[in-house]
Design goal:
single chain, 286 residues, alpha/beta, 2 domains
Length: 286
């Protein structure tokens, strides 16, 4: 879909056989149906159905289909050329008072990630922007891409770190989503977990502003960076400039005894590259 970079999209759509395993074809992961997926060249298997080209096969369990593929001992084709994303550039803060933008934020996050990270993205700019992150071989990624469940990320960080204590969650969440479920930080603090939470503070529902703007997209101006005062633990940073962002992530990397929260102030109309691609296509339909 238009959510992903052009060279990946062309590689995907030009394949003679697309195998979709457990991927539900919903409006979000099809870029509001901008993906031109030819099901005549697809094998589509989920917990709900199995289809090969346009033929559907009933009562085939997903795990049985996967086991059958493994046991079939299929002869692999020679590996052809594959697209590779551009390597992250070294992040160097611009002028002293240069304001943070979505694009520069994700450039810095790219530099922060390592094999011990698990990225957890909420919906909207958080998810669209994270789709362009370079996820390392062992970096995990969680996002509510199928059903766009707003408020997913902070509670998901709690479950993810309890389930995988060897990984440190990097949570990317909008201010609107955080106001729904962000108080789960209290439970995170109670259990001594240490995610790094980046709140995209753009004063409202940023994705909606690019579709249909109005005062209904505004949210209350919380002081997210003062939450450690409420919980009695944790570190927080008020981030308005690139230098402050760079410093905050450096400090968060070193501080591992509790959660860290970055209250990142952004222009209300700023958007990620992926959201820009989607909004451009949507604007032609609305």
């Amino acid at each position: 879909s238009v959510n992903i970079m052009l060279f990946f999209r062309l590689f995907f759509l030009s394949s003679d056989c697309v195998i979709l395993l457990g991927a539900f074809l919903t409006d979000i992961n099809l870029g509001i149906y901008t993906a031109r997926l030819d099901l005549g060249r697809a094998i589509y298997s989920t917990s709900e159905r199995l289809a090969i080209r346009y033929h559907s096969f009933e009562h085939v369990r997903f795990k049985d289909f996967i086991r059958g593929l493994v046991d079939a001992n299929l002869t692999p084709h020679p590996t052809g050329p594959r697209p590779s994303p551009p390597r992250p550039r070294e992040f160097l803060p611009a002028a002293v008072n240069a304001p943070v933008t979505i694009a520069r934020l994700f450039e810095r996050v790219n530099e922060y990630l390592d094999d011990h990270s698990i990225v957890i993205a909420d919906v909207g700019n958080a998810l669209f922007g994270a789709s362009d992150l370079l996820i390392r071989h062992r970096t995990e990624f969680l996002g509510p891409a199928y059903y766009a469940s707003m408020g997913f990320a902070v509670p998901a960080a709690l479950g993810a770190q309890l389930g995988r204590p060897d990984l440190r969650p990097l949570v990317i969440v909008g201010d609107g989503a955080f106001q729904m479920t962000g108080m789960e930080l209290g439970t995170i603090a109670r259990f001594g977990l240490n995610p790094v939470v980046i709140v995209l503070n753009n004063a409202g529902y940023g994705t909606e502003r690019h579709i249909h703007d109005g005062p209904f997209n505004d949210v209350a101006p919380w002081q997210y960076h003062r939450l450690p005062e409420i919980f009695g633990t944790g570190r927080a940073f008020l981030v308005k400039t690139e230098q402050e962002l760079d410093h905050a992530l450096d400090e968060a990397t070193r501080h591992k005894s509790s959660f860290c929260l970055l209250d990142v102030h952004l222009d209300p109309l700023d958007k990620s590259a992926a959201l820009g691609r989607l909004a451009e296509r949507l604007s032609k339909k609305i």
